[in-house]
Specification:
2 strands; about 0% strand; mainly alpha; about 250 residues; two-stranded antiparallel sheet; Endonuclease Iii, domain 2
Length: about 250
């Protein structure tokens, strides 16, 4: 079979199934366990994901804790004044954008679900129904819906955030015409259901630690020989190459 061995894909072609499996194996080997975050209630995961946009996990958690201290119930949060909510989540960044977005979501949910704001029905619903429902909410896109599916409901989804999008494009999963919205369908088609959530975790960690925006650290990347982008990066920075020692490449 043509995909029996992993290989570096040519530009414009997606990694083969064997290469996808090897990418996952190497990410797990280099970065350690790729377990997803602790499972949250669907509504809690939805809110946490909105707060996580364009900030660190530490600042997100700080903002969430401050918000729940100020507004201890979902009902109280839904009734919050936008300025008071923005003040409570200030540590998470973009508070003046996230506060009205959260309120719009919660108030729409209250119209649909009643005062209880209970989304536990999602645990029994199909992934397609959950995705369709979530993306019909104001300001909720495919990444947020995928996070709820993957991290709250344990479904085989692969959220594509900024880090995953960058890494996936450099690895050849996505071409230049694929936007962030379309990327979710492309990635879930390329990665088997059993690997999707952990592949997401691995690609995020790789994007934060190695495959950074600007110049990626290809010289220390465990996927260097599988990545169609690494040859051009290393060619531009030849001093990053280390001589072979004992038959193995050195790394910085």
């Amino acid at each position: 079979m043509s995909d029996e061995r992993p290989h570096r894909p040519r530009r414009g072609r997606q990694p083969s199934p064997a290469t996808v499996r090897e990418i996952y194996r190497r990410l797990r080997s280099a970065l350690g366990p790729l377990d997803p975050p602790r499972r949250l209630d669907p509504l809690e995961e939805l809110v946490v994901t909105v707060l996580s946009q364009n900030t660190s996990d530490v600042n997100r958690d700080r903002a969430y804790a401050a918000m729940r201290r100020r507004f201890p119930t979902w009902e109280a949060l839904a009734d919050a004044d936008p300025h008071e909510l923005a003040d409570a989540i200030r540590s998470g960044g973009l508070a003046n954008i996230k506060a009205p977005r959260l309120l719009a979501i919660l108030r729409e949910l209250r119209e649909r679900e009643g005062k209880s704001l209970d989304l536990s029905w999602m645990r029994r619903a199909s992934p397609g129904k959950v995705r369709e429902y979530l993306t019909s909410l104001p300001g909720v896109g495919p990444k947020t819906a995928a996070c709820v599916l993957a991290f709250s409901l344990g479904r085989a989804a692969l959220p594509v955030d900024t880090h995953v999008f960058r890494v996936a494009r450099r690895l050849g999963f996505l071409d230049q015409r694929t936007n962030a919205a379309r990327a979710h369908a492309v990635m879930e088609d390329a990665v088997s259901p059993a690997l999707r959530v952990r592949m997401h975790v691995g690609m995020i960690r790789l994007g934060r630690e190695i495959c950074r925006a600007g110049r990626p650290r290809c010289e220390v990347c465990p996927l260097q020989d599988l990545c169609p982008t690494s040859p051009s990066v290393l060619k531009e920075h030849p001093t990053l190459r280390r001589p072979r020692r004992n038959g193995r490449k050195g790394v910085a």
